[in-house]
Amino acid sequence: MPGPEVALEGAYIVLVGSFNPAIFHPQWFARQNVTISEQEAENASNVIMLPDLTTFHTEHLTVQVTTDHFQVGTTHVPAYELVRDLAVGAFRVLRHTPIRMLGVNRNVHFNTGTRDLWHAVGHHVAPKEVWAPILENPGTRSLTIEGTRPDGLRGAIRVKLEPSARIDPGVFLDINDHFETEGGDQASQGDWGTQLVDTLEAQWAVCHERSTRIISHISQVIWSLRTDHE
User: Fold this and answer.
1) Among 104, 105, 86, 98, which residue's Cα sits nearest to residue 17?
2) Which of 67, 82, 130, 143 is deepest in the core (most CB within 10 A)?
3) Chain mean position to CA 143
4) How confident is the model at residue 71 (pLDDT cuts 50, 70, 90)?
């Protein structure tokens, strides 16, 4: 079934825990043979190294680390596997890093083509009748739906839909496959990082397939509204 144009898309992994940003220089990844080559490390751009922040870009990856978040992502579809490889590789080396939460994420920006269809999407996912008596000209700014995990692991599946800030008129869809450490506060800190890196490695393909189904479903929902709003 055809669907609206996917104008932009990306994938990213977020880890929540306790990190030392100063470790994560591009050259560190190269020295540890973690995804980034020596040449890529030398050519890294927008490198910022501060006590509480490291960020840099390679040709296809963006890395940002604060004291409580580690994020690696890409907007280059063929590099999606590199996102996983970098996160897994880094924390196999730093296996004692305490990590409490993991997010495997994808997002897309759909070009709706017309503003009428753009409005129709908002009205369809968040009907305005309930708001019309108390708000003037109500509109959908952001909608987040959460589902339980189908695999019995701790966490949730969260899907966010909102107007795109990059494409006009466009719709932004963000999918967060969220995991937490098994055992919660009872898990030993030494196990936290290993637990979630194991989860990332085992669940990556499943998360990717699930996000693909969600993207396809929302695409079809948008497209189904097209005939009445062209």
Assistant:
1) 98
2) 82
3) 16
4) very high
Which residues are within 8 A (CB) of 206 and not within 5 positions of it... i.e. 6 or more apart?
A: 151
The burial class, CB within 10 Å (0-12 / 13-18 / 19+), for 42 is: exposed
Using the structure block, give the residue that is written with the tokens 């590099």: 79
Q: What is the pLDDT of residue 187?
A: 47
Contacts of 77 (CB under 8 A, 6+ apart): 9
Measured at the CA of 147, the angle between CA 175 and CA 217, to 5 degrees, comes to 55
Strand partners, 178: 103, 156
What pLDDT, on the 0 to 100 scale, is given for residue 194? 87
**pLDDT, tens digit (0-9, with 9 covering 90-100), for 136-189:** 999 999 999 999 999 999 999 999 999 999 999 999 999 999 999 875 554 445
Q: Where are the domains of the chain?
A: 5-19+68-228
Dihedral (Cα; 110, 116, 120, 122), 10-degree rounding:
60
Cα(86)–Cα(92) distance, integer angstroms:
10
